[in-house]
């Protein structure tokens, strides 16, 4: 059902002007070919379409944040909101500005400050945080080769001064409970994970399937997954979340590696990868392709 429309969108996307810049503030990300482009769609009925570079792995970066949040939510439930909010920040993903006057409670779990608090929660609750987290992703997807990209993690650790500042600032408010270096190490590793568009769809399947993974494991219940998707809708694209909602109309999450994952609950998951980013750190061509998808099919949550 989606084959024809996706082919059309792929062709149109390839003809678009090359706008946007590859992320270079993490030096290792600058080594990627900026003109890569892939799109992958997986329906809950089992239809799968992969086009272009849909099977090539890239750095998922912030796309890891709904995954760490979901796992932390399994440990803390609603108590999690004592440490992080659920409001869009209207500020860039790496901003420090609200944190001081909001007393160390990040606006939401997807800005870097919020994701660091979630990383702290996982460091508290997991015995071997990095091993347990990657195993969690392997178990929910049956993709046993998923892994951290150690050169990306190392590269970010050597230049991640903003995140280092944020983590220390959070610690000064008591909203990081573990050793700051340990939390940052976990965070840089979660961001370094590589996946292809096709793999992202399999890992993110449970967000579209009422909390149940592709291999039948219930991660969160229906009401909890509603909350995760609501947060992706309102905060998944930082200060561009309104724009993404307006143009695409799906909950989703972006990363500075150029990936985007979005889903229509109970229907499909779609991922795109194009490393050229706009000034808000979101993939220019990915947003274009997803806007085309919901416009041409009329399938969005609105
Ligand atoms: O913390 C950072 O800056 C990166 N590891 C992740 C940022 C990111 O992907 C923002 N997304 N658009």
List keywords for this structure.
single chain, Beta-lactamase, binds 6-diazenyl-5-OXO-L-norleucine, alpha+beta, 302 residues, five-stranded antiparallel sheet
In words, what does this structure look like?
With 302 residues, this protein is an alpha+beta fold. It has one domain (3-297): DD-peptidase/beta-lactamase superfamily (Beta-lactamase). It has helices at residues 3-14, 65-76, 97-101, 112-125, 129-141, 150-159, 161-172, 180-192, 197-203, 205-208, 222-235, 241-247, 284-297; strands spanning 38-43, 48-52, 58-59, 194-195, 252-254, 259-264, 268-273. The protein has a 5-stranded antiparallel β-sheet, with helices on both faces. It has a two-stranded antiparallel sheet with strand order 3-4. Helix 2 (65-76) crosses helix 4, helix 4 packs across helix 7 (161-172) and helix 4 crosses helix 8 (180-192). It is globular, with a radius of gyration of 18 Å. The two termini are 21 Å apart. The model has no long low-confidence stretch (mean pLDDT 97). It binds 6-diazenyl-5-OXO-L-norleucine (DON). The site of 6-diazenyl-5-OXO-L-norleucine (DON) has 13 residues, from loops.
Our Rg estimate from Cα atoms comes to: 18 Å
Reading off the top of the CATH hierarchy, the class is best stated as Alpha Beta
The total of beta strands comes to: 7
- How many helices? The count is 13
Q: Helical residue percent?
A: 40-55%
**Element-level helix/strand string:** HEEEHHHHHHHEHHHHEEEH
Q: Give the integer mean of the pLDDT values.
A: 97
> From the 3D coordinates, which CATH architecture would you assign?
3-Layer(aba) Sandwich
Residue fraction in strands: 5-15%
- Reported by name, the CATH topology is Beta-lactamase
Main sheet summary: 5 strands, antiparallel
Distance between the termini: 21 Å
- Given helix and strand content, the structural type is alpha+beta
- CATH homologous superfamily annotation: DD-peptidase/beta-lactamase superfamily
Adjacency order of strands in the biggest sheet:
2-1-7-6-5
Small molecules bound in the structure, each named once: 6-diazenyl-5-OXO-L-norleucine
Query: In total, how many domains does the architecture comprise?
Result: 1
Task: Tell me, briefly, the overall form.
Answer: globular
- Sequence stretches where pLDDT stays below 50 over 5 or more residues: none
């Amino acid at each position: 059902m989606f084959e024809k429309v996706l082919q059309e969108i792929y062709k149109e996307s390839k003809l678009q002007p090359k706008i946007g810049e590859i992320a270079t503030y993490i030096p290792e990300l600058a080594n990627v070919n900026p003109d890569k482009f892939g799109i992958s769609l997986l329906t809950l009925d089992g239809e799968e379409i992969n086009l272009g570079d849909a099977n090539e792995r890239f750095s998922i970066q912030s796309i890891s944040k709904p995954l760490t949040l979901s796992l932390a939510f399994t440990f803390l439930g609603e108590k999690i909101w004592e440490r992080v909010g659920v409001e869009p920040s209207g500020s860039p993903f790496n901003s420090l500005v609200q944190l001081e006057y909001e007393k160390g409670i990040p606006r939401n779990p997807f800005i870097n400050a919020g994701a660091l608090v979630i990383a702290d929660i996982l460091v508290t609750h997991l015995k071997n945080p990095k091993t347990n987290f990657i195993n969690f992703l392997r178990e929910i997807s049956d993709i046993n080769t998923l892994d951290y990209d150690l050169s990306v993690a190392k590269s970010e650790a050597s230049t991640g001064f903003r995140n280092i500042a944020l983590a220390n600032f959070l610690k000064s408010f008591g909203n990081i409970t573990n050793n700051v270096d340990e939390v940052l190490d976990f965070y840089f590793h979660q961001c370094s994970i590589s996946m292809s568009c096709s793999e992202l769809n399999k890992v993110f399947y449970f967000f579209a399937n009422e909390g149940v993974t592709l291999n039948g494991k219930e991660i969160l219940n229906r009401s909890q997954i509603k909350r995760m998707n609501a947060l992706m809708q309102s905060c998944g694209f930082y200060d561009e979340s309104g724009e993404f909602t307006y143009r695409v109309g799906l909950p989703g999450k972006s990363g500075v590696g150029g990936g985007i994952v979005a889903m229509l609950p109970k229907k499909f998951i779609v991922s795109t990868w194009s490393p050229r980013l706009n000034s808000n750190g979101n993939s220019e061509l990915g947003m274009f392709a997803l806007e085309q998808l919901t416009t041409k099919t009329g399938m969005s949550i609105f």
